[in-house]
Design a protein that fits this description.
With 262 residues, the chain is an alpha/beta fold. The protein is built from 8 helices and 12 strands. It is 31% helix and 28% strand.
Length: 262
């Protein structure tokens, strides 16, 4: 049975025909190239299709003897590998917190694709998304839902108008739905009935996306350890995501929350 592999290499000596040499080598080993793209400066990533693992072992052995390239990765492809080849760049991941992924606004296409792949996965998934006002958080979530063919439900939001749900209808309790919660709106505007609904949703085996997860956990029984993924979206790489609206007692201090739409 054919199996996909991910190969990433760094060019040590760039010369004409290098890619052709590697392609010829793959052909001689009966390994097919599914996709190829540059994934970083001086690096290429390839999705390969091989009949058995021995082909990959022989390939790896030969590549390690070549002085024109340095093998960085050769493994079964992960989601980040597939997206790197698809978009020509790697998703930035926090070096200390492996579940935190960073994007800037110019990478919205990559972000939407990444979230769509997460949304397609079955079962419980809790995703937090941080970002300053109007950076594109909610729009990205909705776009990713469309790509993943998921129906999205706003439990709390300010996208079109302020939304605070206290109950769902029967058909909405569906594991195929995607539930979107705005941590600021739920904390500032909602009552206990809303929080009862939030707890019900959190128990569902479905995807939940929490905007402003830091505010959400400060004012609920949940913690950041409960999240499977944290996504940070900035206007540029140097932007600081700040919540000056919260005082030392973790309560809101009279800030105009209309500033935190989107």
């Amino acid at each position: 049975m054919k199996k996909e592999w991910y190969l990433e290499y760094e060019i040590q000596k760039n010369r004409p025909g290098l890619l052709g040499d590697i392609s010829s080598l793959l052909g001689m080993l009966s390994i097919n190239i599914v996709t190829i793209n540059g994934v970083d400066q001086g690096r290429r990533g390839l999705l390969l299709l091989a009949n058995d693992d021995n082909q990959i072992k022989r390939l790896e052995s030969i590549l390690h003897k070549m002085d024109t390239i340095k093998v960085i990765k050769i493994r079964e492809p992960k989601l980040r590998d597939r997206l790197a080849v698809r978009h020509g760049q790697y998703i930035q991941r926090d070096a200390d917190d492996k579940k935190t992924f960073r994007f800037v606004r110019s990478e919205l296409g990559l972000l939407v694709d990444f979230m769509a792949e997460l949304f397609k996965q079955e079962g419980h998934k809790l995703i937090g998304i941080r970002g300053m006002p109007r950076v594109g958080k909610t729009e990205s979530i909705v776009a990713a839902s469309v790509c993943a063919n998921k129906r999205w439900l706003f439990v709390s939001s300010t996208l079109l108008k302020q939304t605070i749900r206290n109950q769902l209808i029967k058909d909405e309790y569906n594991a195929d739905n995607l539930f979107i919660i705005d941590g600021i709106v739920s904390t500032k505007r909602a009552n206990e009935r809303h929080w009862q609904l939030v707890r019900e949703i959190m128990r569902l085996s479905a995807v939940k996306v929490i905007e402003h997860p830091d505010i959400f956990v400060q004012n609920s029984e949940y913690t950041l350890d409960d999240f499977d993924y944290i996504i940070e979206l900035r206007n540029d790489a140097d932007e600081v995501i700040s919540y000056d609206i919260v005082d030392e007692h973790n309560m809101f201090s009279g800030t105009n929350f209309n500033d935190f739409n989107f």
